[in-house]
Amino acid sequence: MDMEQFDAAIRAVPQGGVTSARGFRAAGVHAGFRKNPERLDLALVAADEPCPTAAVFTTNRFCAAPVLISRDHLGGRGSGIARAIMVNSGNANAATGDQGRAVAQESAEIAAQILGCDTNQVLVASTGVIGQPLSTDPFEAGVPIAVDALARDGGHDAACAIMTTDTHPKEYAVSYETQALEYLGCTFTVGGCVKGSGMIMPNMATMISIITTDAPVAPATLGSLLTSVVGKTFNKVTVDSDTSTNDTCVLMASGAAAPGAEPIEEGSDAYRELEQALFVVCEALARAIASDGEGASKLVTVNVSGAASDADADAAARAVANSPLVKCAIAGRDCNWGRIAAALGKSGAEFDERRTSIDFMGIPVCRDGLAVPFDEDEALRRFEAPEIVISCDLGAGASATTIWSCDLTHDYISINADYRS
Questions:
Q1: How far apart are CA 271 and CA 281, in angstroms?
Q2: What 3-state class would DSSP assign to 324?
Q3: Distance CA 126, CA 67 (A)
Q4: Distance between CA 275 and CA 280 in Å, rounded?
């Protein structure tokens, strides 16, 4: 299969999101988790029928109660069968002990009873303030409203309901006509929504993300697919180097685009197509998180090539992307590439500075470890772009990676200084 030709065949779905794939409905309602009655705070995404589902969760040891419950509902395997994923915003239900875990379980029971499915077929997620007790009252009030509101066009409201400090909902979807012989003539869709703006450096998936597809995929294969793509997209985002207690990414596959068809097998042409489509969606959502980082004015893309190993490439890129000095320089429109060099040097990656090159916004600023004269006025002009690209070649090997981040402005401090107020 020619993947370059296939990439060209992938089409963005206009106003696409988590319900673009067939077999799913969604809703976002106000349930009372937040004081503002105009703010949607409970999202529900439901499959028409229980379907294969996979999820990856935070590796933070201080993980939230809904993470524990959702892991249990998938049998601790990361994949299984589910009917719905429910997310509340405004309260993280983290560091809430046995009471918090009981509330997470009871919320799943409430949803399952109204949806008419097993409790284990409902996954739950929460986002918001850590350490505050959570009551079941908003679930009891809001879940019936959400179930009644479930609709094919409800994906946007669901995307709005999971937001915390996000400035806008983040949604994306693509479709493609498969060229795999087993499913010839079928058009598959992958879509999703995500929230995330601060406390962002996932080490599993993303803050909260719900992704759907109407391709037929078995649970275990879906798990492999999600893990593979997450490592190249959501795990390559950092806003402030802090990994959330609540990170959850769920992928559901209805199979509605090919009823009765055999599930897609790992390693097949159909699998590679779906993997690429999922990558495109997750990459778009990951970039959206970085560009909407708390207080951010710029999306920052850090490319590292010529590393001795994949681990070195990641360490070097992450050191640059997380550097407060680099991030502040970008916020201040200062082409101070020495801060990039310093971040590379502290990263732990193995390289020789005498073979290292750095480009800042496409401008060569360092070659073989030495400064290259550049036009400061041209650099200032390039700082007007919405995306700032930093490219570093370590000259030590063939490994490469990309990390997405953002600049660091005064607004980041303001947002987080007032987060609980």
A1: 15
A2: helix
A3: 8
A4: 9
Q: Record the pTM.
A: 0.88
Cα separations (Å) of 407 from 191, 242, 244, 275, 290?
28, 15, 19, 31, 9
Q: Name the percent of the chain lying above pLDDT 70.
A: 94
SS3 category, 366 = strand
Say if CB 391 and CB 352 are below 8 A apart: no
CB 156 within 8 A of CB 120: no
Strands 363-367 and 370-371: antiparallel
Cα 412 to Cα 23: distance, rounded to the nearest angstrom: 39
Answer yes or no: are the C-beta atoms of 95 and 126 closer than 8 Å: no
SS3 117: coil
pLDDT digits (tens, 9 = 90+) for 17-71: 999 999 999 999 999 999 999 999 999 999 999 999 999 998 777 889 999 999 9
Alpha-carbon 405 to chain mean position:
13
Q: Is the dihedral of CA 255, 251, 129, 413 positive or negative?
A: negative
- What is the spatial distance between Cα 359 and Cα 337, in angstroms, rounded to a whole number? 8
Does residue 287 contact residue 232 with C-beta atoms inside 8 Å?
no
Instruction: Kindly name the residue from 178, 206, 227, 356 that is annotated as catalytic.
Output: 206
d(CA 21, CA 81): 17
206 catalytic per annotation: yes
Alpha-carbon distance of 22 to 4, in angstroms, equals 26
Average pLDDT, integer, range 203-218? 82
